[in-house]
């Protein structure tokens, strides 16, 4: 019963996927932060969408359960959604899998991008970023965005010991120094005055 319903859904999805013009989304687009804030995006998550949300009032426990038919219908529907959100070539490789959960795990393992490439790209951009013809505010905004991105991918561990305060102070000082390195020569005097301060001011104050 589950197999027939799932196969029928997959056949319908396969016929729909033959028209590549109707398939506008890619599973490889999970790294785009712009989707997170746009309600029109198919990847938009509202405040009510979280891992602990109860999607159904009763959890399926056995194939003989009275709710199995309903679960199977929902499972087939979710599979159809997933097949319509990926390219036909990718859909062909997973369309005969039995459950939406198995498909999701397969796609997650295949396409999930680790943090190291993202951190590398952010650090590369930070090294070449200078003020140039931009004003200080624009330069500051771009620099801070890169620091925040790295912080998101590699968050500071929680620690109650006193050494963490020292570590964070060093981190803040490094940000101030990196920011001043990219300033144009007209800020030489201001940069010299800041470097004479001990300790260095915070990044926002500098």
What key attributes describe this structure?
single chain, 206 residues, 53% helix, mainly alpha, 2 domains, elongated
Architecture overview:
- By secondary structure, the protein is mainly alpha-helical.
- Helix content is 53%, strand content 0%.
- The protein has 8 helices and no strands.
- The longest helix is centred in the C-terminal third of the chain and has 19 residues, at 163-181.
Beta-strand content: under 5%
The general outline is: elongated
- Domain module tally: 2
Helix content: 40-55%
| Structure class | mainly alpha
Radius of gyration: 25 Å
Largest sheet: none
Strand count: 0
Q: Report the uncertain regions.
A: 16-33
What is the count of helical runs?
8
Mean pLDDT across every amino acid position:
78
H/E element order: HHHHHHHH
Gap between N and C termini = 67 Å
Task: Summarize the structure in short.
53% of the residues lie in helices and 0% in strands.
Describe the protein's topology.
Blueprint: H1 2-17, H2 68-83, H3 88-94, H4 100-111, H5 115-128, H6 136-153, H7 163-181, H8 188-195
Helix pairs in contact: 1-2, 5-6
């Amino acid at each position: 019963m589950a197999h027939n319903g799932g196969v029928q859904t997959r056949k319908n999805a396969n016929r729909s996927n033959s028209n590549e013009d109707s398939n506008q989304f890619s599973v490889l687009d999970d790294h785009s932060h712009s989707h997170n804030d746009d309600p029109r995006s198919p990847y938009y998550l509202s405040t009510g969408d979280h891992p602990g949300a109860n999607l159904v009032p009763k959890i399926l426990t056995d194939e003989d359960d009275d709710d199995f038919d309903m679960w199977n219908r929902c499972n087939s529907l979710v599979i159809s959604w997933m097949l319509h959100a990926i390219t036909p070539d990718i859909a062909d490789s997973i369309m005969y899998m039995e459950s939406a959960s198995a498909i999701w795990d397969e796609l997650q393992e295949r396409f999930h991008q680790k943090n190291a490439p993202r951190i590398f790209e952010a650090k590369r951009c930070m090294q070449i970023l200078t003020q140039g013809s931009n004003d200080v505010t624009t330069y500051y905004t771009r620099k801070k965005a890169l620091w925040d991105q790295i912080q998101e991918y590699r968050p500071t561990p929680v620690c109650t010991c006193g050494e963490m305060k020292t570590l964070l102070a060093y981190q803040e000082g490094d940000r101030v120094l990196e920011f001043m390195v990219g300033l144009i020569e007209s800020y030489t005097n201001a940069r010299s005055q800041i470097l004479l301060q001990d300790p260095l001011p915070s990044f926002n104050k500098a």
